[in-house]
Every structure is written in C-alpha cells, then in structure tokens.
Amino acid sequence: MQPLLIVLAAAYGAAAGLLVPRPLYRLAVEPEEPWRGACPRGHALTGPAGGWLGPARCSGCRDGERDYGTGPVPAAVLTALVCAGLAAAVGARPELAVWLLLVPLGALLTAVDLAVNRLPDVLTLPMAGGAAALLGAAALLPHSAGSWPRAMLGGAVLGGAYLVLFLISPSGMGFGDVKLALTLGVALGWYGWDVLFVGAFAGVLLGCCCAVALVLTRRAGRRTAMAFGPFMILGAGAGLVLGALGAG
C-alpha cells in the first residue's frame, strides 16, 4: 500500500503544482494594487472559479504568446516531491489528506512572498480555517495520530507568539506572517508540543541564517525587507515529517 500511496500522492502533487502559476501571476502584485485580472496582453482571465483555476495560458493570445507567468514544471516537481515525502512519512492516516491539500497552497504562498514580500489574506485566512475544520474531521476517523484540541491550541500559541514579535518589531515582521502562523501552529500542534517547537524554531533558524548570509555577502543590508513566510513553511514541513515519523 505504501509505494502506491506515495505514487498517488506524487501524481496529485504534480497535478496541483501545474495549477500554481495562474494564481501566482494574479496574486504577485504590490499591496496597493488589485489582483491581476488579465494576461500581460490585456485579455481577461476566464475559467473555473472566476478565472483562478487552470493553466497559465491565454486562449485569446496568438500562438507562441499564450503562456504567461512562471513555468509550471518547477512548481509541479516541487509539489510532487513534497507530497511524496509526506505520504512516505505519514502513511495511510487521515491527516495525510489535510497535509496534501495544504501543500499547493503553501507552495503558492511561498512563491508570492518571494516575489512581492506579501502573504495575501485570501490565502492565509482560509488556510487556517480549512486546516482546523479538516483536522477536526480527521480526528473523528480511525487511525488518526494527532489531537484536534491540541492543534487548536497550537494555532493560538504560535499565532500569539508571532503577534508578539510583530508588535515588538513591526518593521521586522509582516502581519501576514502572523496569519500564516495560525495555520502552521494548527498543523504542528496536531502531532505535539515538541513538534510545534521544532517546526517553529526550524523556520526562525532558517530565516536568520539566510538573513545573516545575505548581509555577509552584501546582497542585503540590515534593514532590507526579506520574505519570511517561505522559511516558516519550510520549517513547519520539516516538523510535520518528524512528527509523523514519531507518531508511527
């Protein structure tokens, strides 16, 4: 069952990754700008979910000009690998479905934050509510390996910790990071407080190491804005894998 599960998870991840470039193109704008609603040549983006779902190709453009945004292959490869890794670590437990649903959203948030230093509310807030609701459903199924009440507390604790950091240094951390911390705290708290600490600390450590490296190589200054969301997501992913392996 495990090899088949890994293959199916990888196939899902690849398919989901192919859909990342379109919403990335639409969301990767500065905070004062509206979401993009047209391709680079001005044709309206149409399709499922109000034009948010589908490949990043414009049917109104000429051949050779249809593709826009980033290429779909890197996103598909990344999400396929992450989904396969999670399936290998978690196994056939109910919470795996929740993690797989969060993977493409995490990849999308990572790409948007790297592009424009922004974590849109249209993604972070539904992610938090969706993760809480789906884990609540997973807790009712047999063979789940976590605690839903602890997951809820984990979201509150990690979100509260990032809120304190934001209040202490608003210039060093965006409020979008606080909202993202709610989802990551829910996910990490599912497996335990030690997993929550490891995942949260790993994200902070990775972010600090990258910032120091950029300063030392003079690619950034001490006041240069840096996307912190990707490190939070990467650290949380590592924490989930460790938590799942420990629960097995």
Automatic annotation (TrEMBL):
Keyword Repeat: no
UniProt keywords, alphabetically: Membrane, Transmembrane, Transmembrane helix
Molecular function per GO: aspartic-type endopeptidase activity
Protein's name according to its UniProt entry: Prepilin type IV endopeptidase peptidase domain-containing protein
Family label: Belongs to the peptidase A24 family.
GO annotations of cellular component type: plasma membrane
Pfam family, one: Peptidase_A24
GO terms, biological process: signal peptide processing
TM region(s), chain numbering: 73-90, 97-116, 122-141, 153-175, 195-216, 228-247
Superkingdom as given in the UniProt entry: Bacteria
Residue ranges constituting the Prepilin type IV endopeptidase peptidase domain according to the UniProt record: 101-206
